Every structure is written in structure tokens, then in C-alpha cells.
Amino acid sequence: MPLTRLIDYSLVYPMFHGSARSLKKSLFKGVKSKVADRQVVGGSIISQADMTVVLALSQLTLSIETGERVGLIGHNGAGKSTLLRALAGIYESRLGVLHVEGDLHALLSPQAGMNTDLTGRENIRLYARYIGLDKAAAITLEKDVEEFAELGAFLDLPVRLYSSGMAIRLGFGLATAPRPEILLMDEWFMAGDSHFQEKARLRLTRLIEHVSILVITSHSLPVLRQWCTRIIWMEGGRIRMDGPPDLVIDAYEAINQAEHQPLKIPVIEDSRARAS
Amino acid sequence: MRKRGLSATAERSTRLGNSKPENPLEGHEPESICPRMDDIVSGMRSLRLAGTLGWTDISLRYRGSVLGPFWMTISAAIMVASMGVIYARLFHMNLRDYLPFLSLSMALWQVGLSSLIQESCTCFIDAEASIHAMKLPFSLQAFRLLVRNAIVFAHSIVVPIGVFLIYGLFPGLISLVSLPGLALWLIDGFAACLLLGALCARFRDIAPIIGAFMQIAFYVTPIIWKPTQLSPHQSRYLVLNPFYDLLEMVRGPILGTLPPLSAVLISVSLSIIWCVVAFLFFARTRERLAFWV
Asked: 0.90 exceeded by the pTM?
């Protein structure tokens, strides 16, 4: 039975900037801080001027069973995407327990594994190889995505020539092709023109009906109300509220209207921005 | 969809030492080295993918050029021809002796050692986008790099083969002795990816340092000059240069001499140390790599 379970799970995210990227400067700093340590008795504070450590997920305990469709809400930097990445196995942490059972597929970025110098068609073939399809299945995938993305002659041009909408069509078509037991989805899938959105919704609905567990993040509360059976409201890497959609979303909206909340912690949570 | 073969983590647990009570869910997975071995094993299982990626890298690099990857062959041929004429004059050697040596040395050094080591530095950084988007074994990127370099190697080796043909030289069966040497290079290259790839992802200034280091290594290793040009008591010390030992294991047999025993022993023992260090380092850093790239 597909399930995901987190017990006391925390994830610490190191962020390097400036001289923390340099071995030479880091070595210097190490020597300096050792000398400094000797002077301060009992002091074990390490100077980390250029390295910020962010507690992106903090002691989460959570269990998602077969049949649940979970929506993650919260402000930017609340840890939604980080949680998805942790569930997908991209980020790993030794703090606490993370247990995932079942075939898992994550839709984290529309450009996942795509090489923008390759044509659309070549990317489809490469993707088939990524997910380990055999030849027949790869041909089916190619037809399926070609039909869905409606790129026409563009399918045989390099992806870097595509408009952002076209790239998303292709990425969306590819990412939604597999039929996993557990599906994780970041919010990028809401983009695109209106005709495409309708098509995308149909395709997603078909996919969602198939999966046993769905975890999505979105800022579109109506979509979450419609699709989810459970909403988890995250704040500062913790769970603020967890329950049926209407209850949690109403509370969330009430808070949002009442106060204009500032960000709790300065986390660059959306690492898609870094990747691109 | 994630296939077991690709990631082997359909069931996956992590935990912190013994601070948590035993959980029945993850009792079967002992701590320690397992996830790292898994990474390498599942990387091996997706060799076909690594092959496709490596081949794609090459075909993209030369897309739009008429000759494709044979540009490598041509540029290598031109370099060997021009260097051969000049250095044979400088070293007072005749071309028939010198050119086969030079062409072979250059092909082996440039692809087998130098570019393999330098590219291993960016092995994970280059794959940043897919590392952040998909769960793939990190070792896949190392295999991809090996495939890519093997393809380049196949194109570069054409030049020494041509030179050998022109001079009517046939290395003979003894050249087969170079195969274990090549295998050793592959293993060392894989270890280099795990070690240098991870290290350079964390510290971005290491790659240029390695580049400078390889430049020096090129001059102090007998690649354009022959070991016999040193006096016997000077050339004794060459064996202390690991690049010489590694090179000699492959080059010697093709030129018709068995590598000296000391070179073999040093190559093999250094390779074992190199691999152990690389594996231990990778084991420690693997779970943090996704944050580093």
C-alpha cells in the first residue's frame, strides 16, 4: 500500500554565498576561528559569516495514507516545495524518519531533465530513457505528448527556441505521462494560456484519478478546495494546521485578510529560481 | 514514474543515530554505507541512460559542424604533426622513432588523464538542473562522464593508429597488456568524479586549481619527451610521478615494452587509496550534494 510517513523530520538547508564557496578562504577562516576558540573558554560558536543555515522543515510528524489528496498551503518560504523535494528524495536529511512506500513521481519543474539544446522530440525520447521505458512505451509516449503539446513543427526545433508557454506545454505533457502511485506536484502547472489550461486540467484530472496519493502545492485556493481531501497549512517549516479543505482554507483566508503577514524566515525556498 | 532500477528507493528511510526509538518501518535498513552503495549500484543499472546522456553531450557539442566529433581527430592530428616536426628537431630524434611515441602519448594524456580529471570537477555542477528536479543516482553523472570521454577517446586514438600505419609499425600482442591499465583508468576516473565532483560542488575554486595542477603535470610527465632522454639515475625518480606510472601501464605495452613492475605496483596501490578516499568522501557528502550544486 502506498503511504508516506514523517516522524519528527527536520531538514537543514545550508546556503553558501560569498567566500564560503572558496576553499582557500574557508581554510583561512577555519584557522582563524580555531585561534579565536582558544581564547574564549568553552566557546564553540563557529563564525559562519557567509554560510546561512536555514531550518527549512522543523520536526514534522505527518502521515499520508492511500487515497488522500493533500494540498500544501502557506506563504512563500513556508517549506512547501522543500517538503515536496524531501518526499521526492531529492533533499535528504538524517534528522528524523522519512518513509515513502510506493512508486513515486514528482512534478517539480517544467524543465525537469530537459536539455534545451535538444529538440522537443529528442527530449521526449531522452525522458523516456530517464523513466526507463522500453521501446514500444517510448513510442506511445512520444505520440501522446506530441498530440497533447500541439507544438506542430516546433517539436523538431531545439527547446531553447520555444516561448515559455510552449516549453511548459512540452514539460507538462512529459511530466504527466507516467502513472505513479504517489504524485507530488509543485504549482508551476497552473501556467499557460486558457485553451491549454483547460486541456491541462483534463489531463491532470485523469492522472489524479489514477494515483493513490497526491501531494500538491498551490496558491490557487479554489483548485485546492476542488481537488483535495486534506489541506496542510505550513508556516516557517512547521505545520500550522492540518485538516479538511474547507476548515483549513477558511482559517487561512481569514488570517490573510486580517493581517498582512511578513515572511517568517528569509528562506529562498523556491530553488527553481536557482536552477534556471 | 520512478522505477526501482533507476533509483532503488521505492522504500526509503533515514534516521538520526539512536536518538529515536526503533521504528518498525525502518528496522530492516541498517545505518552506514548502504545508501551510498545503492547510489552506485542503481547508477550501474541505468548504464543505458548514462550512455544516452554521454552520447547526447557529444552530439550536442558538435551539432551543426560538418565533421562532427572528427574535429577532435583533425585538431589532434594537426597538433601532433606540428609538434612532432619541431620537437624531433629539438630533441635530435628521427620522426620514425618520435612521432608514434608523441601521437600516442598525447592521445592518452589529453583524453584519458587530463580531460577526464578536469571534467570530473564539474561532473555534478553541470547536472545541477536535473539533480534538483529528479531523483537520480549521483553516480549516473559519473558514468555519463566516462561514456562521454570514452567516445572522445575513440576519436582521438585514430591519430596514433594512423601514425603507426604510416610507419608500418604493428604493436603486436603485447599491446593487449595495456587493457588492464585502461580499466584502471576507468575506475580511477569514476572515483575522480565522486571525489572531485563533490569537492568542487562545495568549493568552487578547486576546479581552476586542478586545471593549473594538470598543466604542471603535463610538463613534468614524459609525454612530449621520452623517459630515456634523462640519464638513468635521473629517470629512476620518474616512477614517483603517479601520472608517469599510470601512463606507462597503457603506453608501454603499445610501444612494445612491458611497464616496469614498480610503476604497476605504485599505480595499483595509489588507485586503491584513491578509490577508498573517493568512496568514503562520497559516502559522507552524498546526501548534502543536492544542497551544494
From this structure: no
